[in-house]
Design a protein that fits this description.
Blueprint lengths: L1 H44 L1 E6 L2 E6 L3 H21 L5 H12 L4 H12 L2 H7 L3 E12 L5 E12 L3 E15 L10 E18 L2
Antiparallel strand pairs: 1-2, 3-4, 4-5, 5-6
Length: about 210
């Protein structure tokens, strides 16, 4: 009888160990499954698919801090191209200036008003002058906030009688603002001023 009881006790202990092992194994498998799922989610969330011309192109998402210098330079470039790319058409001028003013504070609006008072835009229209701008380089100081910058560009003014190239140097500061359709980079140019705007090459047309 006692032998029978000992056998039952031994079997019970074995069953406990088996149940405990099953529970432990299940817990390990569950934790591993959660970890692999979380890892897969992180990898998936790090990829963005952009639809372009009917094709899905893969892009990799990154923290904004990794892209701040790139976005800041592109913001400065966009602003200058909008502000200085003009054709002898009032709608084109107003459209480009309007886009530029979303990217800067009142310092840009003041320069626009000053040029307007001097009939600069009217002279472009009456003289059938097209003006374009190419940004050559941008110096950006990311060590202090707001971020100071200096922009070196080349202006090209085309008229029927001549083509003029100008050296344009401007400077200002960038501060962070909310992103929007009108301001996709989330920066605002402040205290913008022109340091130099002088002729470099004049080509007379035959």
């Amino acid at each position: 009888m006692f032998t029978h009881l000992r056998n039952i006790e031994t079997a019970f202990q074995q069953n406990k160990r088996i149940v405990g092992l099953v529970i432990l194994t299940s817990a390990v498998i569950s934790i591993a499954a959660i970890w692999f799922a979380f890892t897969a989610y992180q990898k998936a969330s790090g990829h963005i698919y952009v639809l372009a011309n009917g094709k899905a192109l893969e892009a990799i998402a990154a923290d904004r801090k990794d892209n701040i210098p790139v976005e800041a330079r592109d913001h400065i470039k966009m602003f200058h191209q909008y502000f200085f790319t003009l054709d002898p058409d009032e709608k084109v001028i107003n459209g480009n200036i309007s886009k530029a003013l979303y990217l800067a504070d009142e310092s840009a609006k003041n320069q626009y008003n000053d040029l307007k008072e001097k009939s600069y835009y009217n002279n472009l229209i009456s003289g059938n002058i097209s003006q374009s701008l190419k940004v050559d380089s941008i110096k950006l100081d990311m060590n202090s906030y707001p971020f100071a910058f200096k922009c070196y560009s080349t202006e090209k003014l085309v008229r029927s009688s001549s083509t003029i190239h100008k050296l344009l140097i401007t400077q200002g500061y960038l501060r962070n603002v909310a992103r929007s359709d009108n301001n996709p980079h989330g920066f605002l140019i402040e205290h913008w001023e022109t340091l130099a705007n002088r002729d470099t090459v004049i080509n007379n047309q035959p």
